[in-house]
Design a protein that fits this description.
Structural class: alpha/beta
Helix content: 40-55%
Strand order of the largest sheet: 2-1-3-6-9
Largest sheet: 5 strands, parallel
Strand content: 5-15%
């Protein structure tokens, strides 16, 4: 209102997704325009990002082509270069007449009062320098003390996000346009968002505050690859989302996310800031059990399994019976169409039938087979 803004061009910002900023702007009479190509596609399709670095990784070229034809009312194009030129032509006028530019902030540098921005598209520089007002919004955990600290993180972020040694565009913005300068905003504001972050300080989840939002964990997560980003139900998908979402919105509102992991540990291995994501998800699972948030039958089943697993002979006997029963349940394709108490597994797919023997039996069989193999005599030359 102070600057009489009617249109705001936006560079990519996950915190603006987290705070539903576009909805708030629209409600205040300000038209928000996403200028990152992926975020622009998300906006005109009335959907949400499925990845924090590649927002439309879930869409095919053909789907984007069909969407452009519908929204832009131009002849359909299928060549990627032509499609990007079309988007550029649509977005360019918005850069010229926007009253405000809004960006995220990969890092805020306390030493110099700067915001650091990484991008592979030129839209960020246009969004932050052409409008008369620039607003940078990010979480309070993105503040780093010095430029030296920033230089370390500047080497980590692009390598982990896209495999580049450096992003195509790295901007360090420190204040509005000074007298005599030809470009830059007349007014500049930093907005630091808490939204549950201080609640992590001193808690079991504190290590998540180190997250630099590179997306490496989801790039290597087998669960994310199978179910996609939208299945996580909020802004942050993948292993990072499985911890951040329960931490921010309450574990009772994200019951399934800590369990959306095989605990294979790949996310911890590739994390550039070494956040122990599997351990944090395990702690969240423990909290669910402590607070009795999981269904009664699930907790009962786990208690029974725990009791049996502590008795190896009983466990082995039960495993033999289970394997033989499951083998008999298989069809001619050696698949099981339905498992009692396992509808979540077989409701949408068939379950591969076991061989009818336990791992221990198969391992012992292999060992015995190797012992019985005749030894081949070798002659020294």
């Amino acid at each position: 209102k102070r600057h009489n803004c009617k249109k705001a061009i936006k560079a990519k910002s996950m915190v603006s997704e987290e705070t539903a900023l576009n909805d708030a702007l629209s409600a205040a009479g300000v038209t928000p325009i996403e200028t990152d190509l992926g975020e622009y596609v998300v906006q005109i399709s009335n959907s949400t990002p499925s990845h924090i670095i590649a927002p439309i990784v879930h869409l095919s070229k053909e789907e984007v082509s069909e969407l452009f034809e519908k929204v832009h009312h131009l002849p359909r194009k299928t060549d990627i270069t032509e499609m990007t030129h079309e988007a550029r032509g649509i977005l360019r006028p918005h850069f010229l007449d926007a009253d405000m530019g809004i960006s995220g902030g990969n890092f805020f540098i306390a030493e110099t009062g700067s915001v650091a921005l990484f991008s592979n598209e030129g839209n960020i520089r246009m969004s932050t320098t052409m409008p008369k007002v620039h607003v940078a919004i990010s979480g309070i955990e993105k503040i780093v003390p010095t430029l030296e600290d920033f230089s370390t993180l500047a080497r980590l972020l692009p390598r982990s996000a896209t495999g580049q040694s450096i992003a195509n565009y790295v901007s360090l913005l420190t204040g509005p346009r000074a007298p005599g300068e030809l470009d830059g905003p007349e007014h500049m504001y930093f907005i630091l968002v808490d939204n549950g972050r201080t609640g992590l300080v001193g808690s079991d989840m504190q290590e998540m505050l180190r997250c630099i939002r590179c997306g490496a964990c989801m790039n290597h997560c087998p669960v994310y690859h199978q179910i996609g980003g939208h299945a996580y139900g909020w802004v942050y998908p993948g292993p990072m989302g499985s911890v951040l979402t329960p931490a921010y919105v309450g574990i009772e509102n994200a019951l399934d996310l800590p369990n959306a992991s095989t605990l294979c540990g790949e996310c911890h291995v590739v994390c550039p800031v070494k956040i122990p994501l599997p351990d944090l998800m395990r702690k969240l699972r423990e909290k669910q059990v402590e607070k009795k948030l999981r269904p009664t039958h699930e907790r009962l089943a786990l208690n029974v399994w725990s009791w049996v697993a502590q008795r190896p002979k009983l466990y082995g006997f039960g495993s033999k019976i289970a394997m033989r029963i499951m083998k008999k349940m298989s069809n001619k394709n050696n698949m099981i169409a339905s498992i009692p108490f396992g509808a979540g597994w077989t409701g949408g797919r068939d379950f591969p039938a076991p061989t009818g023997k336990t791992f221990r039996e198969l391992y012992a069989q292999k060992q015995n087979g190797e012992k019985k193999m005749p030894k081949v005599a070798t002659q020294k030359s």
